[in-house]
Amino acid sequence: MYFEVLGSTDPSAQTVVLSSGLGGSANFWKPQLSELTQLYRVVVYDQLGTGRSPAVLPDQYRISNMADELLELLDHAGIQTCHVVGHALGGLVAMEMALKQPERLTSMVLINAWSSPNPHTLRCFNIRKAILASCEKRVFLQMQALILYPPDWIAENIEALEAEEAHLLEYFPEESNLLKRIAALSEFDIESQLSDIAIDALIVANKDDLLVPWQRSMILDEGLSSSTLKILDYGGHASTVTATDAFNSLLMAHLAQY
Predict the structure, then answer these.
(1) Furthest-apart CA pair in the chain: how many Å?
(2) Predicted TM-score (pTM) of this structure
(3) DSSP secondary structure letters along 242-255
(4) What is the DSSP string of 97-160?
(5) CB of 85 within 8 A of CB of 111?
(6) Are 185 and 212 in contact (CB under 8 A)?
(7) Which EC class does it fall in (predicted)?
């Protein structure tokens, strides 16, 4: 998989791994890099079957496979321990890693994540699959923006958003890969195992998230043995982008504890 190691070259610096959502792109984390790289070694990567990590994903591809891929990447990079910051799908990957190799994680940051399917999110995925089946890739990306960002943010950033969508359209992932990744998200269920995860977790949720009800983060907080829940009123599903100052403040304060 394509990855980059950025930031501090101090051997004593802690490592922060940033794992994206459905899009899988390292570029998603640009709003966090300037602050993180001043103090930490930062790993960003394009998930397998997305962006600069081309691959034909296997049938029955699951979040567990994605966790194994990231663990292999860390082995390749010689990284023994790290914080994993995961947005949505990336948060699911972090929890799978915590179940598989808890000794590798210093902490987790779970952003608009969940531990089991819920009817609302599944409906959103079904709509996206229907749009994809119609071969309307441009409409798929426009729908994706509606899911990710609050209405006022879209209105105020339309030029930048249209430029981003044009880039994403040019590098649109293989349809079969996207469907397999959506299936992995739709079937993820570790609710009965949450109490087995002893890794410190910062859980960030948004009340205006169109994709994931913020109450799903409450379930995570109640189930995990060591967690802190922070709920933002504004930011939509991608508050890392739309409420950068608020999110970065929470992230840096969390990491500063270690």
Answers:
(1) 51
(2) 0.97
(3) HTHHHHHHHHHHHH
(4) HHHH-GGGEEEEEEES--SS--HHHHHHHHHHHHHHHTT-HHHHHHHHHHHHS-HHHHHHTHHH
(5) yes
(6) no
(7) hydrolase
What lies within 8 Å, CB to CB, of 133 at 6+ separation is none
Following CA atoms 109, 221, 100, 43 in sequence, which dihedral angle do they give, to the nearest 10 degrees? Answer: 0
What b/e readout covers 193-214, taking b as 16+ CB neighbours within 10 angstroms? ebeebebbbbbbbbebbbbbbb
Report the SS3 class of residue 7.
strand
Here the tokens at position 38 are 């001043």
Q: Tokens at residue 210, please?
A: 């169109």
Neighbours of 60 (CB within 10 A): 10
Question: Please, what are the domains in the chain?
Answer: 3-255 (3.40.50.1820)
pLDDT in tens, 187-238: 999 999 999 999 999 999 999 999 999 999 999 999 999 999 999 999 999 9
Contact 54, 44 (CB under 8 A): no
Nearest one of 253, 179, 210, 203 to 91, comparing CA atoms: 203
Closest to 91 in 3D by CA, of 197, 20, 181, 28: 20
Beta bridge partners of 198: none
pLDDT digits (tens, 9 = 90+) for 101-135: 999 999 999 999 999 999 999 999 999 999 999 87
Contact 35, 18 (CB under 8 A): no
Neighbouring C-beta atoms of residue 69, cutoff 10 Å: 18
Angle at 216 between CA 258 and CA 210, to 5 degrees: 110
SS3 category, 18: strand
Please say whether the beta carbons of 16 and 85 come within 8 A: yes
Q: Provide the 3-class DSSP secondary structure of residue 45.
A: strand
